[in-house]
Amino acid sequence: MGNQTLQFNVSSLLKQGTGTRELYSFVAPMKFDNVKIASDIKGKVEIMKIDDGVNAKMEDVRLMMDFRCDLCLKSFKQEVLINRAERQYLFEGPHESVDPNDLFLIDMKNETIDLKEPLRQEIILHLPLIPVCSRSCKGICPHCGKNRNREQCKCRTEKTLNKPLSALKQLLK
Q: What is the DSSP string of 42-58?
């Protein structure tokens, strides 16, 4: 069953017994602050009734994102894959203090759950720490500013400049 948003109606599940499941697939456009998504988000979700709410298990979530290479500053697109993520949606909040970013409640008025926030959190967790356009990217020369992927420069690299034991070679002579 396809869904164009990330809100799922769970009214039929709430009337069923614990362990009852519903499977959905979704394709949805999304926008977040400070995250550049270049495609619709596609994935599957299994929603299961539990004692105090529902459990939503997202699988095979895929999206394309825009990045800027940290080495050469070139813009590029890369697929982000979230193999599996789960969140529980409760009927009511717990009595003890809980971080509001980790608490998800069922909208009992509409009998729906919204996967947008947990999906946003998972996307951020799956972003590369250092986005690089390719493994062979040589980057920009820190001395002359030339893009070393397009042209060679005559500057000495930091690898040759930063040799802390090079003074020992002089002592041997």
A: EEEEEEEEETTEEEEEE
- Give the Cα separation of 70 and 67 in Å (integer): 9
- Provide the residue type at 31 as one letter: K
pTM beyond 0.85, yes or no: no
Q: Which two tokens stand for residue 133?
A: 């356009």
Give the distance, in angstroms, between the CA of residue 158 and the centroid of all CA atoms in the same chain: 33
Dihedral through CA 27, CA 30, CA 36, CA 41, nearest 10? Answer: -10
The SS3 call for residue 6 is: coil
HSE value, Cβ hemisphere, 13 Å, CA-based, for 93: 10
pLDDT in tens, 11-67: 999 899 999 999 999 998 888 877 889 999 999 999 999 999 999 999 999 999 999
Please give the structure tokens belonging to residue 29.
């456009």
Lookup: tokens for 2: 């396809």
